[in-house]
Amino acid sequence: MNKNKFRGTGVALITPFKSDHSIDFDALERLIHFNIDNGIDYFVSLGTTGETATLSKEERNKVWAFTAKSVKGKVPLVAGIGGNNTAEIVETARQFRQDGFEAILSVSPYYNKPAQEGIYRHFMQIAEASPLPIILYNVPGRTGSNIAASTTIRLAKASEQFIGIKEASGNFAQCMHIMKEKPGNFLVISGDDIITLPLVSLGIDGVISVVAQAFPKDFSGMVHEALQGNFAAAQQLHLKLLDYMEWFFEEGSPGGVKAALHVLGICEQVLRLPLVPVSDTLYQRIAASVRKYNQ
């Protein structure tokens, strides 16, 4: 497959909810068109940002089908399929047959705290079952365990099913070791909005972003400028977005970005428990800034 389709700015879509906490498909369609029209390169549907842990299997299938229908092939799609029950994830990946999706994003198993050998065997079983290529996802701040650089390299060399990794460890040294040892066509994608620009300077391939879905034009512009080596232009956009890169995660994600999208008139500020909307103090700070940003 052409892996360059996953260079640039991927957006980790939220799942919009109505006030009764049912899925708001009209809002999801507005969000998809807002992002495509403003230059993002691909979507991740039902990753962590999509509050996937709170959706039933039936709801997940409806969101994937609706997203593919709304996107209409205009940008590539990645499905979030991960968890800490290897057998269950293997079966979900094996049976995944949604049209329009070209890869899966699979998070490292959380809570169990497996050894590196366990992480390696977990992903190898998924690779053997999945009809789609796999982007690994390392986010130790959420999972409680880290995919070591040596394990990432071992997986990248063991199977061509692994086309890249979303690295959200915040560990520059680890990212550099992956860059140094990886196969040439293996993608390294930032999972941290705030350090995406410096990571691109080290040679990574872009970002899967939360912030970008509220500011798709400027965020994708920053990434594209950086990938082309225009770091002065990229730095200006990075600094313009810097406050949002902090505020959107100040009280947990996706509460911050849902507050901004509410201000923009795209969706309600509703989350499913155990997540809750941001405090009124943070909402007012985001709202005032977003209104000024768009003047």
SSE arrangement, N to C: EHEHEHEHEHHEHEHEHHHH
Helical content (DSSP H or I, runs of 4+):
40-55%
Number of extended strands:
8
Share of β-strand residues: 5-15%
Shape: globular
Which structural class best describes the helix and strand composition?
A: alpha/beta
Largest beta sheet: what is the strand line-up?
Answer: 7-6-5-4-3-2-1-8
Count of helical regions: 12
Largest sheet, described in full? 8 strands, parallel
Q: How far is the N terminus from the C terminus?
A: 42 Å
Mean pLDDT over all positions: 97
Radius of gyration: 18 Å
| pLDDT < 50 stretches | none
Descriptive notes:
It is a single chain. By secondary structure, this protein is α/β, with parallel strands linked by helices. The protein is built from twelve helices and eight strands. It has helices at 25-37, 57-71, 86-95, 116-129, 140-143, 149-158, 172-181, 196-201, 216-227, 231-247, 255-263, 280-293, and strands at residues 8-12, 42-45, 77-80, 101-107, 134-138, 162-167, 187-190, 206-209. An eight-stranded parallel sheet has the order 7-6-5-4-3-2-1-8. Strand 6, helix 7 (172-181) and strand 7 form a beta-alpha-beta unit. It is globular, with a radius of gyration of 18 Å. The mean pLDDT is 97.
